[in-house]
């Protein structure tokens, strides 16, 4: 599943370890969904985590580690289309990421602008709580492997 996490979700995960947003970030690190990002988001993340009002609450090493993980492990969307669908023009790059990256879900805490859209093209726009609920339901439906079972399928024909 391809997902865009709003920068506010990423920053919230840094600010509140163990929170819903942190659990969502950890779910990505566990490989439960594919995260999309862009240079625009990376720049916004750097700017926000260095903001004087947030700086006392964010460990620079933690912000740097998250930035490096995003850069190395997330899918980088390079060419963003022009999008003008949000009431807040600063949020349009997130919608452009969702469109260009063919995201199924955009997760945000922005009630007034992004969440009020409900969806954008084929992308559902939801809260962290809603998406974590979806991930939990999906995990419950997966059959459990017996202890020692391999994730790889065995070949049916001999070599």
Question: Would you mind describing this structure in some detail?
Answer:
With 159 residues, the protein is an alpha/beta fold. The protein has one domain: Rossmann fold, CATH 3.40.50. Helix content is 45%, strand content 13%. The chain has seven helices and six strands. The protein has a six-stranded mixed β-sheet, with helices on both faces. A hairpin with a 2-residue loop joins strand 5 (119-120) and strand 6. Helix 2 (20-29) packs across helix 7 (128-141) and helix 3 (39-49) runs antiparallel to helix 4 (60-73). The longest helix has 14 residues, at 60-73. The radius of gyration is 17 Å and the shape is globular.
**At the first level of CATH, what is the class?**
Alpha Beta
Helix/strand-derived category reads alpha/beta
- Second CATH tier, the architecture: 3-Layer(aba) Sandwich
Number of helices: 7
Largest sheet data: 6 strands, mixed
Q: What is the element string, with H for helices and E for strands?
A: EHHEHHEHEHEEH
What is the residue-mean pLDDT, rounded to a whole number?
A: 88
Task: Give the oligomer, counting copies of the same chain as homo and different chains as hetero.
Answer: single chain
Spans of 5+ residues with little confidence (pLDDT < 50)? Answer: 142-159
Write out the strand line-up for the largest beta sheet, numbering strands in chain order.
Answer: 3-2-1-4-6-5
């Amino acid at each position: 599943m391809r997902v865009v996490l709003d920068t506010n979700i990423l920053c919230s995960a840094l600010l509140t370890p163990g929170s819903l947003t942190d659990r969502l970030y950890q779910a990505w690190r566990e490989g439960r969904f594919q995260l999309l990002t862009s240079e625009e988001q990376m720049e916004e993340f750097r700017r926000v985590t260095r903001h004087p009002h947030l700086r006392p609450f964010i460990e620079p090493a933690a912000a740097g580690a998250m930035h490096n993980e995003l850069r190395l492990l997330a899918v980088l969307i390079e060419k963003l289309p022009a999008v003008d669908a949000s009431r807040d023009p600063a949020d349009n790059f997130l919608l452009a990421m969702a469109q260009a990256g063919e995201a199924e879900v955009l997760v945000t805490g922005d009630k007034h602008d992004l969440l009020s859209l409900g969806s954008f093209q084929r992308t559902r726009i939801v809260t962290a709580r809603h998406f974590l609920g979806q991930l939990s339901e999906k995990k419950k439906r997966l059959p459990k492997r017996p202890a020692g079972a391999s994730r790889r399928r065995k070949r049916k024909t001999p070599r």
